[in-house]
Amino acid sequence: MPATDSAPERHAAAVRPRDAATLIIVRNDAAEPRILMGKRHAGHRFMPNLFVFPGGRVDPADCRVAPAEPLHPEVERKLMARMRGPASPLRARGLAMAAIRETFEETGFVIGRPTDRPGHSRSAGWAPYLETGHRPDLAPLRYLARAITPPGGPKRFDTRFFVVDARHVANLECPVETDSDELLDRHWLSIADTERLELPAITRKILSLLEQALDRPRGMTPDAPVTFQYVRARKWVVDTL
After folding, report:
1. Over 50: is that where the pLDDT of 7 sits?
2. Residue 149 phi/psi, 5° resolution?
3. Contact 38/186 with Cβ under 8 angstroms?
4. Helix axes 89-107, 73-80, angle to 10 degrees
5. Could you state, in order of their start, the residue ranges of all structural domains in the chain?
6. Three-class secondary structure of residue 56 per DSSP
7. Which architecture, in CATH terms, is 7-240?
8. 92 in Cβ contact with 80 (< 8 Å)
9. In angstroms, rounded to a whole number, what is the distance separating the alpha carbons of residues 115 and 134?
10. CB atoms inside a 10 Å sphere around CB 144
11. Do 55 and 22 meet the contact criterion of CB atoms below 8 Å apart?
């Protein structure tokens, strides 16, 4: 009989990536930029004990909560480029909203604007955020990169990496206390500081891209190139959106 892949290998290869989003918060109030990172809990199946940015998979409610301000049109356009499945502004918005929600759940930081009418949600993720009296502000988010987890693992994500200046965090000095244990040992770190940490390989690639972006004369702009990384024919491919 001809050789065939084992059942576990076929199953691992068949795992479809799930849409996810990450938010990199950058502080510029010191000698060099600092970013927020935390250590993932040892009990997680995906990237345990590694330092990462806040983020996670997209939830259906992320497309239903109304933001205070929409995405910049150029950021929205790039998010829809090569989107798996039907591309739409609503799905693009959902990605950015997921980044803001996950950041709030894991760190207590609110990226949003105060309002007298924050709205309501039955979502366990959005209800506590809206109770702070804010609506999400998508306008300052910049789109840095996209990466798809290679086949072979128990989980795969199609992750979009957003960047926001810490000036847009409404409660930078007094984050809301949350029950999440997703990120432990949260720290503000310079890119040089991260060299001594245990990081996922893709996180090191993203940090390198971030450093290059921050060094540009105009800094992070909505029309800046977006790096798209994924595996094709067992090779790591780096494209530009």
Report:
1. no
2. -60, 130
3. yes
4. 100
5. 7-240
6. strand
7. Alpha-Beta Complex (3.90)
8. yes
9. 6
10. 21
11. yes
Find out whether 67 and 129 touch, Cβ atoms under 8 Å: no
Integer Cα distance of 25 and 162 in angstroms: 9
- 191 and 35 in contact (C-beta within 8 Å)? yes
Task: Give dist(CA 80, CA 14) in Å, integer.
Answer: 24
Residue 74 in contact with residue 100, Cβ under 8 Å? Answer: no
Q: pLDDT tens digits for 203-223?
A: 999 999 999 999 998 889 999
What pTM value is reported for the model?
0.91
**Ramachandran bin of 133, using left for φ above 0, alpha for ψ from -120 to 50, beta for the remaining angles:** left
By CB neighbour count within 10 A (0-12 exposed, 13-18 middle, 19+ buried), where does 150 fall? middle
Query: What is residue 169's DSSP assignment?
Result: B
> Which amino acid is present at 16?
R
Residue 45: pLDDT over 80: no
User: Are 89 and 113 a contacting pair, CB within 8 Å?
Assistant: no
Which tokens in the block code for residue 100? 């803001």
